[in-house]
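Model: Ready when you are.
Researcher: Fold this.
Model:
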Amino acid sequence: MQRRLIAFLILCLLIFLYAMPIMAHDRDGHDDDIEYVLFGNIDYKETHPNCRSKIQAIEDATYLCVDQFNGSGSKELENLRKEKIPDIPKSISEFDFSGNYSHRDYTHRGWNFNYDDKAHWDMRQKILRNTVDKELFSDLKSVFSLLPWNSDAKKYKEQCESICELLYYVHILGDHIEADNFKALAYLDPLTRLNDRDNPGIIPDLISCFEKLFEAQKNTYTYNELKQELESLMDKSDKLTRSTGGVNTDEKFNDYHKCSEDLLEVLHAYVPRLLQKEEFFIKSFS
């Protein structure tokens, strides 16, 4: 009788562990991914102290945009205030919401997703935009470049938005990689969802944002290699998400998870090389 009871309890525990949502990347993991994609080095902030405050602000703003809930983030918001990021909320309470694992439903469904008002998504995006604009583009701006008919003004605005989008999707990609079963993908923007024109998924959105971010490099070998690699992963992941039932078996999950890991490595292989040829990036991190 005792053996049966023990076996039953073990079975219940295994069922609970399997059904329980897997935790996302921790904060350090997300920050490492940002530095891995932007600089090709997860320790860039520590090995380049002259850039540390700038990188920390970008990482803090990404966290506040995507992962802040249940009153967290006061330290990060205060750090942005010390960095003199303009026009940011005075208090966490202005954009906070209550949630648990399902907090992803309010912030992890895509950069351009139409979220519930509870998400305060416009305010969250503004925190990230204003931080990226101040830390990466302020050195390039002059009185004349701010004029609305100036071509540089449009270029800076589009590149700023593209960097924000890239930071956002690097964060979401980290949660894909952290998942160890298909149930842990709940509430996450998929890698690819081509049947949804408004929210086609991470990879199609990255392809679109790179077209603006690296517009001056579209004819280069590096850019076109990046695009080809992304399109290949887009095709692979779309076949999985379009399959009957979607990514709903261990076999399909393993293939899908491999696409997530490969996507991070593709970004790491190409994005730093392209960024290092963009004027705003050179001036910000020279």
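Researcher: Now this one.
Model:
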Amino acid sequence: MQTLIIDSATVSELLSMTECITAMERAFRALQAGDAVQPLRAVAWPPDARGGIAAMPAYLGGPAVMGAKVITVFPANRSAGLESHQGVVLLFDTENGSLKAIVDASAITAIRTAAVSGLATRLLARADATDLAILGAGTQAVTHLEAMRSVRDIRTVRVWSRTLEQSRRFAHEQSQQHGIPIVAVDSASEAVSDASIVCTVTASKTPVLEGAWLRAGTHVNAVGASVPSARELDSRAVAMSNIFVDRLESALHESGDILIAQAEGAIDGDRIKGELGAVLTGEISGRDSASEITLFKSLGLAIEDLAAAQIVVEKATAKRRGHDVDI
């Protein structure tokens, strides 16, 4: 049996942001309904801890797909002009277990991560939220800008990163592409001060967003930190927010933003309001008032990768894209 191999460029061409947001909604509804199996990821860090490798298996129903993402994470790659996340998504036949497809994971991760933030923003941000702050200026900043514009009428954007030159480059390129004003600023506090939506998409291990900067009614997508020892938000920012997560089990095992705030006594174990899937089904409410601060803590789930990769494989097959090989 042949296996279809799909590269990064083909993924980016075939998987649109709006389509991916819709696919993420279906995936989270399936997870909430029990029509998915989502174990915790397994991660191995070499002794030097410069980078690690993670295996993320899952099963997702409707339509049925099973597989895994195997990915390396090397945060320092960004300074060398390389992707920090590299790997593959493997899709297997649910009837006989044969390997159906190998899909580039960098492009899948970039799009589906932002799409989930887009879904969370659609559910949790104020309807009149138009002012966006992005902390970070890498790949996820690019896709998150697209995702935010897919669900809200974004009119102004301020971007900050540790390298002002990179922020300016992002602002110049993306303002030309999207036709909206994007300003590179000198400090994270300046970026956040008047924002109604904040996306943190950095590789920082220590807080880049402080609760003191957040105004009432802001929605925050916290994306960059995905291990217990790293966080992008200080404890005050977490404590003053109504917290929503992609998966409760993952958040309580992997999220430094939440675990460190708990260790510091800022929040207790019941502080998380619930999962995104429960908001979709109406089992819990999302935003309850215009003044509350909502926080979506994203860790990334394998069901997201499978849902996104399945779309790409279906389109690639129909359009005869990719390469068939015998494994």
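Researcher: Key takeaway?
Model: The chain has a mean pLDDT of 95.
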